[in-house]
Structure formats: C-alpha cells, structure tokens
Write a structure and sequence with these properties.
The structure holds two protein chains of two kinds. Chain A is an all-alpha fold. Chain A has 41 helices and eight strands. In chain A, strands 1-4 form a two-stranded antiparallel ribbon. In chain A, strands 2-3 form a two-stranded antiparallel sheet. In chain A, helix 1 crosses helix 6. Chain B is built from twelve helices and 17 strands. Classes of the chains: A mainly alpha, B alpha/beta. The interface between A and B is large, with 141 and 130 residues.
C-alpha cells in the first residue's frame, strides 16, 4: 500500500508535467525542474509539497508530505537534489502484480473476487500447429534502435492504440496493474507479464499480445469490453506488421514494474546486512570537549557541519534525568542535597553506579524489554483468556537486567533456555521461564483449523523474534518473498520449521471457545520457585474432584447420547447449550485442580517452550470414531468437541514432531508445497551457519547464529535500543526495523563501534549504559539553539539532549514516590495470577471465573507497587498507564507513541489516583516534620519534591497568590471526596496546589 | 525527542490552524517545520463524500436474516423438510412479510416501524463473512481481520477524516461488548491512540448513567478554575523561559480541550432538553424500547455536534433457541428507536449526509436448531444502510431460495468496509498507514466498492 503512495507520486508528477505540456510524459528531470520554482537546483519541502495537491494520498496522512520528503532527503540537509528526488519516479514502479495479492493466511478469499480473467495467458500447449513455426526474428531488431520509419510507424499506428486501450490497466501509473504487465515502455512490453513476453520482435506466435488482440482465446482476449472490445481488423494487422518489423519502439526507461532482481540487488547492498566494523576514532577540532570515544564519534559529524554542541546540563537537571532514565523514579531531596554538595570529579559517576546497582534499575529497564517482548498476561484476540503465570517471565526479565545478565545469554535463554545445560534446578527453572518469551504472544484460541493455529503461532513467534532481536520484519515473507528486503519466502519457512518443531506451552484451559489449551511447564522442585500462598485442603480437593467426576459422567452421557441411533437428528438445543456450559465448568475445574500439587500447595507452573519429540508419538485421541464435523448434526458436532477434546483439535501430526516445514503457497495452509530445510535468513548469513540436528528444533542453533560475530544485526539492534532508552531516540529511529523500509542510522560509525564493543566486551548492558551516561553527550543540556536547530531539527546528530516526556510508568511511580506512597517491595505474582485460569472480564458462561474489569483497569489506583507490576491484560490495560501511551502489547513495540490527548489532562485533573497523590503530598508538605514551616518554605519544598528545583521568583509569587486567592468557603472543595473525610480548607488548597504541580508540563517533561 | 511526526500526534497547534492554501503559507511551512494542524482536525477526503458521518447500529450475535429482511417464501413452504446439513429440517419464518413503501421492499412484521422507512433503506441481502463463529466474525466486521490486531473501522474513519468537533471524541462507541475482541473492536492498534474509540457504558448495562472515565471533576467548578489558572500560568511561564517548546503548547491546549470536553460532553449526553415528542419518537416512554431509544437519541446528538463515527451495540441476537420469543423481543426493543432515529435525522436534514448502518456479524441458518432456533450462518446475511448517499428502497444481492448462501452480487465484509469508506469520500486502497515497514489498510488486499448502491 506504500507503493500506492509512490505510485501516486508518479501519477501526480506526471499530471503536473502534463500541465505544461499535456501530450508528453515527462522525465524525472523535467518534473524536478517544474517543481523547482526558484530554480536553485534543489527542492525545498514547500516546492516538493506542491505534489500534495495532486496527490490525495499524501494528504491521507497528516504528515504525508513531510514523511515522504524526509525519507527522500537522504543526507538530511533539508532539500532534495535531483538524485534524491529521482527515486520517487523509479520506486513508483515497485508495484505488485495485479494478481489478487495473497489472502491473509487462512482467510478464505472473499467471495467477491474480481471475475475479470487475467489479461494474458500462455496459449494452450496442446494446440501448436506445426505449420505455425515462427519466422526467425531479424537478429538486429530486438535490441538495436529500429530504423526511423519503423519508429514513425509505431508512433502513428501503435502508440496511440496502446495509450488509448491498454495503459489504463497496463502502465506504471495504472490504478491497478493487471497481470503484472506494463506496456508503456519498450522494456515492459518485451518482458511482458506473468505469462511471458507480450511482444517478441519478429515472432507473432510468441507474442502474447498478438494472441490477445485476436480474441481467439476468451480468457486472454484484450482489450476488454469496457475499453471497447476487440480492435478493428485493420489495427490488428498494424500490430502484426509492427511485430514483424521487429517491434521498433523508442520508449526509453526501465519498465515501471521493475524486475525482482533489480530491487533485490540494491536491497542486498543495504547497510544493515553488512557486519558492523569499529570505526577509527575521528580527529576532532575541539579536543577538550569529548570525554570518551562516544563523544568524539558524535562531535566529528557536528564539526563537519559547522555545529557545536550546546552547554552542559545543570547539575540538578542532570540528576533528575539520570534518575528517571536509570530507575524511572525521581531523586529524593536527600539525593539532590548530596549530589549538590559533592564536588568531587567522580560525583556523577558515583550516582550512576549507585543507580545501576539499585533494584529499581531492573524494574525500569526490564519494562523496556517487556515492550519489545509484547509482554501481557492474556491471549488477547477473539477470546481473551488469562495467562495466570506470565508474571514469572516479567520477574525473570527484571532480574536479568538487575544482575546484568550478558545479553547473549539473555537472548539464548529466551530462545532456547529449555535446550541449554543447567548446573542445578534453579538455573534450569530460570532458563525455562525465559522461554516464556516465545509463549506469551497473542493467540486466537478459538481457531477451529488446527493447522492454521499451528502456523499462526509460529508466525507470531517469527514476527516477534525477528523484530525483537534482529530488527527485521521476516513475517512479511509468509505469503510471498519480502517485498522490500531480500528475505525470500523459503527463508521464512526455514525459520517456520524451527518454530513448528517447538511445542509451545501457554496454558489456558479447555472451554467451549478454546480449542487450543495446552499444559504449562512444571518447574523443577529444587528450584524453589515462588508460588502464590494458596492451599487446597484434601477435603476441598475431594469435593471438587467429586464435582468434576459427576460433571464428566453426566456430560459424557449427554454427549454419547447424541450418537445413539434413537437420539434423533436434532435434540433439544438447550441440551447443546448445557453441553457448552458444562465444557467450560469442566475445563475450569480441571485447571483449578491441576494448579495444586498433591501437597495442597500451588504447583510452580510456567509458560515456555520445549522441543517436539524427534519421532512422532502415538496420536492422543481417545480412539473414538465419530462422524466428521461436516457430516454430523449440530449437537453431534458439539458432542465431538467434548469427547475428543484431547485429540481432535490437537496439533496436526506433522507439527507434533521435529520436522521441516513446507512452503505454503501464498501462506495458504491448504496449499503446502515443497519442504525447506530448517535454517536462517540468508541475507544475514555471512559465514557457514550452525548445522541444525535432525533431532531438535534448531532454536539453540538459531540463537548461536544470531550471536555469531558475523551476524550484522543482533548487537546493533540491542545497542540501538539502549541508546534510544537513554536518549529517547535511537541512532536508527526505527528500532524494530533495520530493513530497507526502516530509517538509515544517523551515525553509523558510532552505532557500529558501540555494537562491536558491546559484543567484544561481553554483551554487558550495564557497562553500555554506564558508558553512555558518563559521555559528555548524555550530560548536555536540552537548550534550544537556533543555528543547530535549523541544521538538524530532529537532533539526529545529538547537539543537545532531546527533551522527553516521562513514560506512563514514571509518571505514576513518581506521583507515588513524591507523595510518599510508593511501595518498593515487589509484589508476588499479579492480580491476573490470583484469579487463575479464566477469561479477562467476567461472563455468565464462566461462572465464578475471570478477572473483573475494575481489578485490571483501576489497578493503578489500587496498589502502591511500582507500575511494572500492574496487571497487563490485553485489551484491558490499567487506565493509569493506558492514557499515557503505554505500549500496545499486541506486538513488538520498540518505540512508544508520545501523545498529548485530552484524556491525559482529564486523568490529571479528575482521576482519584492523582487526587489521592495530591492530597498525600499536601499532607506531607504541611506535616509538622516536613521541615518547612511557612507557606513560602512549603511552596519551595513542593517544587523541590515534584520538579527537583527551586521555584523562580515569578513562580513563587504565582503560588503565593494562588493560596491567597484560593476560593474561600470551599471547605472541602471536593464535590466527590476521594476519602470519606472532608478536607479542611487548608488541606483542600494544598491538594489543589499539588494537583497542579503534578499536572504541570514541567513535571511531565525531562530536560 | 519530539520529532515532527510526534508533534503531529499531539494536539499542539503551535502554528496550527494556519491556512496552508497559498504559496506564502507553504513558504512559511518550509521555514518553520511545524505542523499544519492537529491530527483530529477535519481532513479533506480523497473525493467528494456522500456521507459525512456514520451511525452504526451493531446487532451483536447474528440477527436472523430470513426472519427480518430477506423474504424466503419457499423456505416457509418447505418447513419441516430436510435441510442441507445432515439431520436438519428447514424452518420457515414464523413472521409474515409484506411489501412496503413505493419501492415495495419486503420486510417482516418484526420491524413494523422500520418498515415505514422502506423507501430510505438500502438492503444488502448478500452479505458474507469468513467464519461462522462470533468472536472472529465480530472482529472481522470491526477491523477486517480476526487473525491480527488491526485498527477498527471507526479509527480508520477518524484517521482519514478527522473530526468536526475537537471538544469531543471523534469516535464514540456505546455499550460495546467486552467479549469477541473487546476493545479491539474500537481500538486504534498501530494507528495513533488519538484515533481510538471512546467507550461509553458497557455491554448489557443500561446506557443511562454511563460516564466517560475521569470526565467528572472531583472539585467544585470555582476550585477547578483556580487550579487551571495556576496550571496554565505555570505552563506559560515554562514556555516563556524556554524557547521552542511546541510540546508544552500541546500540553496547554490539551487542558483547554479537556476542560471544554468536560463541559460539552455532559451537555451532549443530557437528554433533558429534548422534547417529549422527540423522546417518544425514540421510544423513551416505553420500558421495552427506552434503553436502545436513549442510545439512538444520543447517537443523533453526537452526530449533530460533529462526532464522526458513532457505534451503538445491541445484543444478544444469538437465537439458537427461543427464536420466537427472543427475536421478537429484540426486534421490539430496537424497531421504534431505529425508526425514530431515521425520522429524526430526516426531519433535521441530516439523513442525507449521515450513513446509518444496521446489522450484525453474520446471519442464521434456514434450518432449525431444535424446534425454535437457528444456527450461525456466515454465507448469507442482511445488513442495511440508510441515508449517506445510498439508494433508498433498494435491495442489493440475492440469497438462494432458502437463505443458505448469497448467490448474486455477494458483498463480503471487506467490500462493506470499502463501500463505507467510499461513501465517506475515502479510497480504501489509498487510506493507508505505515507500520512495521509497510503500508496497511482496512481492507488489507481485499475489498470492492459496491457501486450499485450509490444514489
């Protein structure tokens, strides 16, 4: 669809060119010249923006013009040269063939598929008349310019017909290019479409265009009726004559529908596929400025543009910055005092080291990774079911960042922790929990087609793994070769084989609408994995077991009865419904009983993956032969679901064993093609990849391959993420997409140097964070500078620290911290875990189960624990996080949005959470032991606590005026008190004042 | 790190609302890389629109088409004979059909009041969707996809057109279900969050008393005014101190907007100013119709003040059994309110550019389930449109003699989406959003505009 934009650009450019000279198509040069109003040889954005009027697509996005302009402006100098502009004209050709693009996998094509026959078709092979052996083409005619009279013939008799009858569907700027065929260039007409060359000079029989215009074959007859139908005999003769002349054709230009190899050639040279190399440390003019090589690598390009970094940040600004960046919390007044008093040269590095060592570092940085890992505690999708044990993965990630688990090990454990050797149960458990990464994606558990489900699951894993670790969008190659990156479809299925050979354990429970429940993985006893402090007494167990047995017995009878001949065709449908309800009850009971061990304590269960067996085990069906779904009556179909619940909807046998995957044609699960050996992305493979054993999935080798020295992306992608988490913007601004549709690095020398050092230095994230924090660049102020801004408005070169908004968690956690409410003890489990298996939300068909909506949505106001521990159920996020652009957990999110929507303002003004925080902060300020006795002192203290600075004189006065004029008689200004006690007038004023501080722009932004 | 792109997502109007018509303005834009206007500002459609806004009456559960808008005399004649599926028997409709209006559209007696508007209705009798399961079909109806998390129809509409009232959410959904995809059905997925639907009320709960989260102030108006004055003074001080802080302007504006929304939203939701005649037109004076009538009246009020997309959910239409009672009751509760809505829109001159859509995620089988029920049917169902530039008194498409399957002029849900966007002046192939390295659209690679229904 992106291509539509480009195509529209060509269309528009052409249209503009035609304004000046309606008859002719114009070259890029001519269009460029036309747009270049001030004739200075470059296009400004305004000049380029003229296209907008001709190009509604650019307006479909608010930033359509800017985005396109920015993309074209490769050197970021704010103007387009002809060379930069030219791609608009050639990229437009990368339009897909007109064949119906692949249906979304598993989605049956809509019934209303266009019934137009393909415009050309290879003639039936059965009917070649022997006499019709073509005359050999005149040897010179094919490639050499034909004689001028031939050209004249073409111009007079052929081109007008092509333009009139064919271009509408077969030109680069056609609305829809049919059959992959373009006839508006010499190259296009000779290469032809999907069925072969339209014109073979001198060869009538081989020229499909000639066959088409003869209207002999009704499938390929052209032009279509709506274009006037069959051409006149005279015109047909002209075409034949022209072909026999050698099809002279002056139309230059590459075919707009560029051949695949053309694009992939360019795509193969893409920077990101080449392994990174350390850059030499550049010489800089201002040798006194840099503190480290990071600084030298940043300063050199700035100096090259004649720019200078701004001044260093003030101490307190820097302190607030580093506290939020490393821990997501504000510095306390004591922290600020200590730092201000410490005049030693290593004062800042001491702070950095302290923060890196604090457990709050992992809570902040673990959450960054949880965005990437699309962490959530439910399936999402159609039937949103809880993942009660997802929190173990969350805790694993937090701990990994806290103990600075080397990133290579972190990656390896998440991909293949189950396959790694473990020294003890504890390590084994940790590694198993790590594989939860692969298990906690979204799932359509109600998918009736088991093969589709298996492939969708593998697809979700490929998508996540490739974006998270490699910054490539490999899942785009499920239905066809990747359109932009050199990732062939067979590479996708090489990866798919690895994940299809993997058994994913995500839990959930058997239910009427869940055909895909799995077991969870029980962690080894010796690991001492924490469990919720629940107990099932033997008595309770007995009771529930009896209840279950009774239900099973009755339900079995009901189900069996539907197959008895006497049962009749269509029993009481209330019986069917009863069956469905009972299925849910049974599933919930089984799951509840299964979550306790024989000792009555909860079993330590985890989400994760294991390999499929090397050899297919016996099928798990109950050995019952029932009529197939299609031939059964409705109640038999439901009964079968119940009777065969262990087998019928299990994975298809070919995916229950370590196996290679077939290439599914157009991603359609009903169209398996040839199998491809399991393997990796070829474009990223620069050395012989590890061999995948026949007996295991290959996930371990996948990790090895990603971590190989020659892998160009793994280290770069992570280093770029860390940079982004420190600066707010990556060196590559599309952190999950380093492919040709992603953005170019703003400083590749720096990125590559950091990547190589990261790998060589043992993949330590903390070391990298420390190095960045101690760079001079990180310690720059965020001051505006006109010259620099004009040259680099996006701050891509890092001439200052970019201003950033606090993320959702920091806003909530800071409000709790400042108001003295924050509880730093990590809670055990999660509110989702506490409810066990069930749906997200509560529904009558799941009696007694489910996580109530308010438990999820209001969670931010119901606990004082850090935000990373709030329940994250898909589609029901905590309000306190959702309003401030929390990551959408449906997919990998390397880059959160930053919006300023009114719902944020409403949250700050009116939410009980903020009201409570404001009131508590007010109480803290006015408490006898606050150390601030006067109003003035209290205002000062409030500023220090909330904004980590003193108020300016203006601010101080404004605040004092606020108290002086606070509406009197509003004893308890509240109309809806948060607490039952009405507030005293002073308290009301302080609550209001504190609410304002928390709502202020200064609180929300980090300088 | 406020890139231009992110600024666009803020409501900042630092230099906003500049008319960018002339070259002078373009030059200004080039000199100053800020945004022409906010992301919710009205945007020009791709071509002249027929409809400016949408009211979608979503009948969750799959209403029976053969009992309502798809007259099947042969089915009635063959009641009790074997159906297509083994062991099933055909079940003719228990309700009489009659022709209505100038157009003579056949509508069942279940919709006596809607039938009075026959000449405004454009029936799509050949609807199809991919799967006969509620969750998938409901998600597909709303987002085009049940496999992937994708933006909803309303979010795409808002993204494409913006809203005409920035004091209110541009996409409001009343009492949507929590199941069957839940918030995904009005979510924005990868589109900026500002385009997501604002939920009002919850499934199976009365709309009266429903509130927008955090909309009501906790303090008295004069106190809040004092707070806002202080807040904006502080924010302006920040602006004064530091140059070039468009994001701070965005914050300032967001509070002003919130304040206005806080005021305007309750006004729109306050039905007390409506006349008794209007209230009874919508059936507010009748216990059976009051709740849905209130939703319809709210929908009109939202539409009137410039909300772009309003969706109303009504459930449950999943009549596996008790068809006679349950379907009857459902129709009774929506018939008068819908007729009232159509009449009211018409008398206010709004029907011509308001697209009203009625329907559910699929239809039901012509054969019986039990003695008095019908199973799911994704191969055939009826939706209808009214107003918004569609032909009135028109029926598009045909099902077979029994209503098993659409056989003529089939309209898939993707086609429905393409058509709705088309009526709004948007080309479904050009309304794209770039995410994860490629452009996405509501209809993915599908969708054909049903041109035949355009007035």
């Amino acid at each position: 669809m992106y291509r539509h934009l480009l195509l529209a650009a060509v269309l528009a450019a052409t249209a503009i060119a035609q304004q000046s000279s309606p008859s002719a198509r114009r070259s890029p040069e001519q269009i460029f010249e036309f747009l270049d109003k001030d004739k200075n040889g470059t296009l400004s954005e305004a000049e380029f923006g003229v296209l907008k009027d001709k190009m509604p697509t650019l307006q479909a996005r608010p930033d359509g013009v800017s985005a396109k302009f920015k993309e074209l402006d490769k050197d970021h100098n704010g103007v387009l040269t002809l060379e930069e502009f030219r791609p608009v004209m050639t990229q437009g050709s990368r339009r897909p063939a007109a064949t119906p693009a692949p249906a979304a996998p598993g989605t049956p094509a809509p019934s209303a598929t266009p019934s137009t026959p393909p415009p050309t078709r290879r003639r039936p092979t059965a009917s070649p008349a022997p006499a019709a052996t073509p005359k050999p083409a005149p040897p010179a005619a094919a490639n050499q310019p034909a004689p001028t009279d031939g050209i004249a013939f073409f111009e007079k008799n052929i081109r007008p017909v092509l333009a009139d009858k064919c271009y509408q569907c077969h030109a680069a700027d056609a609305e829809k290019i049919k059959g992959g065929l373009v006839l508006d260039t010499r190259e296009g007409i000779r290469r032809g479409g999907e069925n072969g060359p339209a014109v073979v000079p001198g060869n009538l029989k081989a020229s499909l265009l000639i066959e088409a215009i003869h209207y002999d074959n009704k499938d390929s007859a052209m032009p279509p009726k709506k274009a006037g139908g069959k051409l006149s005999d005279e015109v047909i003769r002209d075409f034949e004559k022209w072909v026999q002349m050698g099809a002279p054709d002056p139309r230059e230009g590459t075919a707009k529908l560029a051949a695949k190899q053309d694009t992939s050639k360019a795509a193969k040279d893409w920077w990101a596929w080449q392994p990174p190399k350390k850059a030499p440390v550049p010489q800089v003019k201002d040798a006194a400025w840099p503190k480290s090589d990071i600084d030298r690598l940043l300063l050199a390009p700035l100096e090259a543009k004649g720019l200078k970094p701004v001044a260093d940040a003030e101490k307190l600004t820097l302190l607030r910055r580093v506290f939020f960046d490393l821990t997501g919390l504000p510095p306390s007044t004591r922290d600020a005092d200590a730092f201000m008093k410490d005049s030693s040269p290593d004062a800042f590095s001491k702070v950095v080291d302290r923060l890196l060592a604090s457990p709050q570092f992992g809570e902040k940085w673990g959450r960054h990774w949880l965005d990437v890992a699309r962490y959530a505690e439910s399936t999402g999708k159609d039937i949103n079911l809880a993942y009660p044990d997802a929190w173990r993965y969350r805790d694993y990630v937090i701990a990994a960042f806290n103990k600075d688990k080397p990133y290579n090990q972190f990656l390896r454990e998440q991909l293949a922790g189950d396959l790694l050797p473990a020294g003890n149960d504890k390590q084994r458990a940790e590694q198993l929990v790590a594989t939860g990464f692969l298990a906690l994606g979204t799932k359509s558990v109600n998918q009736a087609n088991a093969r589709q489900f298996a492939l969708d699951l593998a697809d979700e894993q490929i998508d996540t793994v490739s974006q998270a670790f490699l910054g490539v969008t490999a899942a785009c190659a499920r239905c066809h070769d990747h359109k932009f990156d050199p990732i062939p479809q067979k590479d996708y299925y090489a990866l798919a084989g690895i994940f299809l050979s993997t058994d994913t354990h995500y839990g959930t429970f058997f239910a009427a609408q869940n055909r895909s429940a799995t077991e969870l993985i029980e962690l080894p006893r010796g690991a001492g994995a924490p469990v919720l402090p629940r107990v099932l007494t033997p008595q309770e167990r007995g009771q529930k077991q009896a209840e279950l047995d009774k239900l099973l017995k009755e339900t079995n009878e009901m189900a069996e009865a539907t197959f008895k001949p006497a049962a009749g065709a269509n029993r009481n449908p209330k019986g069917q419904l009863a069956l469905l309800f009972r299925m849910n009850q049974i599933g919930l009971l089984e799951s509840e009983l299964g979550s306790f061990g024989s000792d009555g304590k909860m079993r330590p269960l985890a989400m994760g993956v294991l390999d499929q067996p090397a050899h297919l085990k016996e099928g798990r069906t109950r050995g019952r032969s029932t009529p197939s779904y299609e031939n059964s009556t409705p109640d038999q179909a439901i009964a079968s679901r119940f009777l065969e619940r262990d087998g019928r909807f299990a994975r298809p046998p070919e995916f229950r064993v370590v196996n290679e995957s077939p290439v599914f044609e157009r991603g359609d699960v009903t169209k398996p093609g040839g199998k491809v050996p399991r393997g990796f992305l070829s474009v990223l493979t620069h050395q012989p990849p590890p061999a995948i054993p026949a007996s295991s999935s290959g996930r371990r080798e996948l990790a090895d391959w990603m971590l190989a020295d020659s892998n160009p992306l793994t280290a770069r992608v992570m280093v770029n993420r860390v940079w982004q988490w420190m600066f707010g913007q990556g060196l590559v601004t599309s952190p999950d997409n380093f492919g040709t549709t992603g953005s170019l690095p703003s400083n590749q020398a720096l990125l590559d140097t950091l990547a190589v050092k990261f790998r060589e230095g043992g993949w330590s994230v903390k070391k990298l964070v420390r190095e960045i924090a101690l760079s001079r660049a990180y310690q720059l102020s965020s001051t505006f500078d006109e010259t620099n801004f004009a040259a680099d408005p996006e701050n891509a070169l890092v001439w200052r620290m970019s201003k950033r908004r606090l993320d959702a968690e920091s806003i909530r956690d800071a409000a709790l911290a400042i108001s003295g409410q924050l509880d730093l003890r990590p809670p055990l489990g999660s509110p989702v875990a506490e409810r066990g298996n069930g749906p997200i939300g509560q529904f009558k068909q799941f009696p007694g189960a489910g996580v109530p909506e308010d438990v999820l949505v209001e969670s931010g106001a119901r606990t004082n624990a850090r935000s990373v521990y709030l329940p994250i159920a898909r589609e029901m996020l905590p309000d306190a996080l959702a309003v401030f652009d929390f990551a959408e957990p449906g997919f990998v999110t390397g880059n959160r949005e930053t919006t300023n929507v009114p719902s944020q303002a409403l949250f700050l003004l009116n939410s009980p959470f903020i009201a409570t925080a404001a009131q508590k902060l007010g109480e803290r300020l006015t408490a006898a032991n606050s150390g601030a006795a006067s109003l003035d002192q209290r205002v000062q203290l409030a500023y220090w606590l909330v904004l980590c600075r003193a108020p300016s004189e203006t601010e101080r006065q404004t605040a004092l005026n606020f108290f002086a004029n606070f509406p009197s008689g509003t004893s308890a200004g509240d109309v809806r008190p948060v607490s039952t006690a009405a507030l005293a007038p002073t308290t009301a004023a302080w609550t209001s004042f504190c609410r304002v501080l928390l709502a202020s722009a200064d609180f929300r932004f980090l300088n | 790190m406020f890139s231009r792109r992110e600024l666009l997502k803020s409501l900042s109007s630092g230099f906003g609302y500049l008319a960018f018509a002339g070259l002078a303005a373009r030059a200004a834009a080039a000199a100053n890389p800020t945004v022409p206007d906010g992301p919710l500002a009205p945007k020009a459609p791709h071509f002249a629109p027929r409809a400016k806004r949408v009211i979608f009456l979503c009948m969750r559960g799959g209403p029976s088409h053969v009992d309502t808008f798809d007259y099947k005399p042969k089915l009635t004649a063959k009641t009790g004979t074997p159906g297509i599926r083994a062991g099933t028997k055909l079940l003719g409709s228990k309700w009489n059909f009659a022709q209505h209006g100038q157009s003579g559209l056949s509508i069942s007696e279940l919709f006596p009041n809607v039938a009075n508007h026959a000449d405004d209705l454009c029936l799509l009798r050949s609807m199809q969707t991919d799967l006969p399961a509620h969750p998938q079909a409901f998600l597909q109806l709303h987002t085009g996809s049940f496999q992937f998390v994708r933006p909803s129809l309303g979010a795409w509409t808002l993204y494409g057109l913006g809203t005409e009232n920035e004091n209110l959410p541009g996409f409001v959904t009343l009492t949507p279900p929590a199941a069957s995809g839940g918030a995904q059905n009005y979510g924005s997925s990868f589109l900026p969050a500002i385009y997501q639907g604002t939920r009002l009320g919850a499934d199976n709960r009365p709309i009266a008393g429903a509130e927008i989260r955090n909309l009501a102030s906790l303090v008295k108006p004069q106190t809040q005014r004092a707070e806002l004055d202080l807040l904006q003074a502080m924010n302006h001080e920040t602006l004064r101190r530091e140059r070039s802080r468009p994001e701070v302007e965005g914050v300032i504006e967001s509070f002003e907007l919130a304040f206005r929304m806080q005021k305007e939203m309750p006004q729109v939701m306050d039905l007390s100013q409506e006349s008794e005649a209007t209230k009874s037109l919508y059936g507010l004076d009748n216990a059976a119709t009051a709740d849905f009538g209130r939703k319809c009246l709210l929908a009109r009020r939202f539409a009137e003040v410039g909300v772009r997309f309003v969706e109303i959910s009504h459930g449950d239409w999943d009549q596996h059994f008790n068809l006679t009672t349950a379907l009857g009751a459902n129709c009774r509760s929506v018939d008068q309110p819908i007729a009232g809505l159509l009449a009211d829109l018409k008398q206010r001159g709004m029907l011509k550019d308001t697209l009203v859509i009625w329907g559910g995620e699929f239809g039901r089988t012509p054969h019986a389930q039990g003695g008095d029920g019908r199973d799911h049917n994704n191969k055939a169902f009826t939706m209808w449109m009214a107003g918004g530039g569609v032909k009135g008194g028109f029926a598009h498409g045909l099902t077979d003699d029994y209503g098993y399957e659409a056989v003529e002029n089939k309209v898939h849900v993707h086609d429905l989406h393409a058509t709705i966007l088309h009526l709004l002046g948007l080309d479904h192939e050009r309304l794209t959003y770039r995410y994860a390295g490629r452009e996405f659209r509501l209809t993915d690679v599908h969708g054909n505009v049903v041109k035949e229904i355009m007035a």
